[in-house]
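Memo to structure team: turn this sequence into structure tokens by end of day. - J.P.
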Amino acid sequence: MIGSSQLRRLAGYAAGSASASLGIASEIAAGAAHPLAGYGNDVDAWDPEYIARTLPVLMPPTQAYFRTEVHGLERIPDGPSLLVGNHSGGWMIVDTFLFTYAFYEHFGPDRRFHQLAHDLIARSPLLNHVRRYGVIAANHENARRAFERDAPVLVYPGGDAETFRPSWRSAEVDFDQRRGWIRLALEAGVPIVPVVAIGGQETALFVTRGRRVAHALMLDRMFRLTVLPVSIGPPLGVNVLDFPGRLPLPSKIELQVLDPIDLTERFGADPDHDEVYDSVTGGMQDALDALDSARGMPVVG
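Reply from structure team:
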């Protein structure tokens, strides 16, 4: 949990909370006019000065609303690494925001950190704010550019298939059998750092992923979407693909960073990708089961 001394330290980044909040809100709203908006491939859109200004305003209310707990950040090694996480909560990417805020609070806004996101998020002309926090489009070339700058990179292999899984599967790691992250880590020679999160799937009632409908409409070919999900949440009730929009319920979000894994050290010089997949996801599922067993009622946590 974030202590009062940490919040006081963060407050030093911003002068005057009220005036800072108004200025930051205006700056975020004006993000679409930024020349980098809409691209998502420029790792140098990352802006540590912007993070230092906005983090003290954005982090405390967000963490308070979701009663966030983040454990094990000290396990993230120096230099480049591939943080591999399970993903929840639809397009709201609450777990990503909360983990990113916690990362910068722990290591400071000057340590570079990048998060790989779906094209619809990373390339949106309205979301330059998230690019300045390190969001880049999810592809191996962008990840390699980030590694070259000694940055940890967060990836969600399950993507849209996992983040829109039904709410009653909240405590499941579901990478949809995707293994590209293993090849990326091996080719780049970086350790894997598993990250598990729980609570995001309780920010709405996710009913169905709609995979057959998405395939029939060829959304996978046009937009790299494998799902057309239906969810229920305030204020409008039913949403399709998180549209027309919803307010996330205040589910308690808990995240746990696990020990780094050197793939060649653990699995040999030429690792079997199936073995790596089963071992890493199995360890993550064990950790997620432990977090789940400590929870009470949905949303309440």
